[in-house]
Write the structure tokens for this entry.
Amino acid sequence: MKFFAVNGKRPVRLSEETRKFAFDSLNHKYGLETWGTPAVLMDDYEGFEYLTPLQKYDAAIERIAKTAPIRICEGERLSGAATLGLAIGHQIPAMFNSELGIFGSVSHLTIDFETVIKKGINHIQKQAEESMKKYKGTEKEQFVLSCLHCLNCMKIWHERYLNELKNKSEYRKNFENLQNVPFEPAANFYEAVQSIWFTFAFVRLCGNWPGIGRIDWLLGEYLEKDLADGTLTLDEAREILAHFFIKGCEWVRGGDYGSGDAQHFQNIVLAGVDENGKEVTNVVTYLVLDILEELGISDFPTTVRINKNTDKKLLTRVAEVIRLGGGVVAVYNEDLIIDSLTDYGYELKEARKFANDGCWEIQIPGKTRFGYIPFDALQIFQQITLDNYSENACFLDFNSLYNVFIDGLRNKVTEIFSEVNKRNFVYTALPTKDWKWASDMPCTVVSLFEEGCIENGCSYFEGGPIYNILSPHIGGLPDVVNSLYAIKKLVFDEHKVSFAEMMRLLKNNWEGNETLRQYTLNKYSYFGNDNDEVDVIAKNIIKDFSDICDNIISRYKTPAGISTFGRQLEWSPYRFATPYGKKAHDILSGNFSPTPGTDKEGATAIIKSYCKADLKRTVSGAALDIKLLPAAVNGENGIEAISSLIKGFVTLGGHFMQLDIADTELLKKAQEHPEEYQNLSVRVSGWNARFVTLNREWQDMIIAQTGSGF
Amino acid sequence: MKVADIQRFCMHDGSGIRTTVFLKGCPLRCVWCHNPETQNNIKELLYYQNKCIGCGACAVCSQKAHEFSTFHTFNRNLCVGCGICAAECPVDALEIIGKDYTTQELFEIIEKDRAFYGQNGGVTVSGGEPFMQYKETFELLKLCKENGIHTTVDTCGYFNSDILEQAVSLTDLFLWDIKDTDSQRHKKYTGVSNEKIVSNLKFADSMGAKTRIRCILINGVNTNEQHYNNVFDLVSKLKNCEGVELIPYHAFGGGKSEALGKKNSGNNSWIPSERQIIEAKNYLLQRGIYVFNGC
């Protein structure tokens, strides 16, 4: 059993059985099994087609709870499993007349596990009963009834597990541990982990993809008490927690699915301060890092909240896990994010609770409805500002070009939200004379775990949660910045080419002037090289875009964000040649990271360019991805180098950063496509050269050297 | 100051994250030199033929050093190192090495990464031999130290001992090259004998200079126990030495010497085997000398 590391070796701390369980899970054993039982069937449900959507939903949840396969894995320490395959596909796993999933499901949220472990689901039941008294006879009654129904379904499912475990002597401990939780408050660490897992598994079984959030903050006090009482050892605790992470891989089923076969937004957030400003880092924080380090599970996107006072010990541990490669652990600049949230209007105590939606978009867990709307700024620039590079596009100076682009951006965002407002709201003539969320998509199960829904008698999609967010996300930002900068230099400053000629060249995908294309590609220093002249353009766009977002008229909060995730691939067919020398349909920048091939000064310069903008304004988030060569971080100095990058990132005002260690495969790709890997510096002792400037023979040698890890 | 290159985010030139300034000019002529463009203290034009796209932009040359008939020919004898062609070359096939910087300009570049240096990171002055331009190097080191930036110097150790006292006072860490411990071989392969290098090292150590000894390993030249024993002897007598960095020879400098219009000096037979590297490492480790990893 080997757990792959890009760089270095993974330590062994867990028992052989637990490692075997992890190995099987990561090698698709349970994912394929889940895929084999896609959904419950509603065909024999009398009159199903005549039910209201909410009644259909309730019927489906009941059938899922009563008939979904029960799974007890060999040697598992935690019980409960999301065993229906359509859930992997983001649908409620119920079918009627062979139609795939009757309803879609919910993701991009972190649900409220705090109430689950501290007060128990019976507390939620009481809340729902209170609400029932309040809303009986009103239009909200149906939703509250659905809440009570779904809680009952969860009890049924729980009962099925208890019955199954009862007669298996080897699962005695599991049986005992599942008696009280999740319905009663957890009494110790083992129960608390089981409580979170069982709730998580049920919500997932019903098709949803919730995040976990701040697991060390949730579990720390339980473990510290058990360790102090001597009722649990640290090694036992690590085993239990490892099973949580391993069971979270039960949807991993291998094969080629575009963006991967895992990652169902099951985020983990570690460290940082609690609502009173006290650091929460505890023994669970380190156990999570131990587990990620040993098993290399990348399915729980884990982000560590770093602040100016973060302990050196934690920073070193984070760096050690990052160094193994695979990009498992990312970092938040907690200081900036808390300021960002309070500037935006959140109470300080509330801001300090932040987690995310499953990737990195900031939200207050357990009380936020979250969505985002991505769009491509480069297409706005090319198709609207520059009118598809037609003869009509003519600008006499940089400022008027910039201003027209910002106008285009504003129009786009306005257009998006006028559509959203039409679609998502209806104006009611009820006494409140208020807007009402229009939604016919039932989502009761997640609504149970979002503060506000039961109290307000409104579901997650009907404005129930405390905060309702729809965040516009700008994509292709560095590409617009570079395009503006190249036009500024080539046309307005250096007069290398007229505006009209520039448009003609771009329309023809640079045909006819390769020399100028090479010149613009190589001779200017674009975003990511710590060049103030270009970075200020990014800074200004972010300010203007944030202003636009703050002025959106909508019932949602509409904080700005910067992202592409993988959309630079989807957008490439619609993108033309760029003024900075890229050809039509090239794959350009991801998130708020430099365009591939344009960053030549190394990681510190990338971080500096990125941090020059006021990222407090991008309240939803602005992600930076950096890849480092193993050779750059090996040896005694490597851990310090990674820690120093993180510290610099926090000092300079970054938001979210994913450092990754690239493997030799990347170098091989660089051999095939040198134009995209301009920035790959090879630095061995005092010798330095850019990888792509070496000839084949030398490149092969470097690759061999990188592989040997000396 | 004549500068060959400035590299930010260097991880192998001392502790922490560093900005390394490669200066021009070196008193040694090591046949295995991996940065041959730093040897001469003059501006030089590097021409990477493999990158040339034959666009003719470099024909701006007033000396007519670039000619285009069927392909691009560069007549190095006519070149005065003005760099106009390199500024025009759209693919950076032409590169001018040896730009002049004031110490203040260099300091401003070094300052850019201050947020990443912390206590241990900082500037490394390398080369070439930094003390070939000792006045300016001292000025730069002083400026950095005054502003709280950790200073490291990568030196070949071959310079007038008169400057040592000041060098030691301005340098937090020396990366001190001991290329060979056999004086005759040293002279044969580097052009100078090693006595001055060793005596400077001992003198620096006596003044409290913190050092790491950098030993290049060249198969068939210095991969023998006698040399390892001499290194051990030398290092064990130093009071302020942190340990040894073993640097296996690689042939990557050869490409740069070609770009300088010289013969490719790379020699694959000099590359030490994995076993030789481990032998050298173990020899020193077993005798209590710390050997750094990851070079």
Chain B touches chain A through 51 residues (CB under 8 Å). DSSP finds ten helices and twelve strands in chain B.
